[in-house]
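The aim of this short unit is practical: by the end, you should be able to scan a pair of folded records and say something sensible about each. We start with the first protein, listed as its amino acid sequence and then its structure tokens.
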Amino acid sequence: MKYLEQMILSKGKVLPGNILKVDSFLNTQIDIELMKELGKDIYAHFKDCGVTKILTVEASGIGIACITAQFFNCNVVFAKKSRTKNMGDCGVYSADCYSFTHKNMNTLIVNNEFISPSDTVLIIDDFLANGEACKALMSIVSQAKAKLAGIAIEIEKGFQGAGDELRKQGVDLYSLAVIDKMEDGKIVFRS
């Protein structure tokens, strides 16, 4: 999506370690008009898939997931990174994933009441780097015996290869912006 690419070029910052800082419009401060456009674009791609739930990870994926859910008229479920007291003794689906950004291991947890075998789930997240979060969320969908509609990503780091791997597995991966390289503060998008 050219609009997102323009925002990344004008407001994004490349940090050491192939980190792309987009906190001024995507994940700390959220540009709602941009999110609406991204949500409409995701909906246009997946509108015929019968999506009944959107699944994301706390916290950065929640904004785009909620805005997109309005177009599907469905609920959003987000995987927590730790079990909380308010979860009580409910059963859960869980999967481990390593965070590229935070450099730590997390166990993603979803209350098993919120995704069922009758659901068709669209996974949405802000970034795809090494694919760990997507694989963990796909595992949760599988544990629930739900159907995976596909995965929507705001920004894919194409040079890290996880997106290409998921596509080879037959996953309908729809990335709004794919970065082929980040060098010397410059960003090159896949055409």
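Turning to the second protein, read its sequence before its tokens, just as you did above.
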Amino acid sequence: MPNRTAVLETAKGTIKFELKETEAPITTKNFIELIEKGFYDGLTFHRVEPGFVIQGGDPKGDGTGGSGKTIKLEVHPSLSHKKGAVGMARSQDPNSASCQFYICIEDAKFLDKNYAVFGQVTEGQDVISKIRKGDKILKATIQ
């Protein structure tokens, strides 16, 4: 069965990324469940670090919010923080990921083995570079 695709619609364009369901089953299951509940619809990208990452998925909009559930850190040797990688944000506790995610604008391999990569952008990398702090995820779906 092929991996599913997450679709994020923004005012700047659409971002699509393949979910790595075999390599990151816990992380992708959590992300898919949140999308199916409409959790991400209307949330903002609260962090934009040029040349590094865009980050969104925080219901509080300030980097401190969660979904009420955490998942354990899940790393796979074949998944790396290369340009377009999608990963789960977390606090200092490796097992604290919840709902916040980031997309790498450029390679950030120093994050490998410390943060869970669970997707790879397949369409819309140009859109990622246009995202600014406060831009909204209008709608998130799974294909």
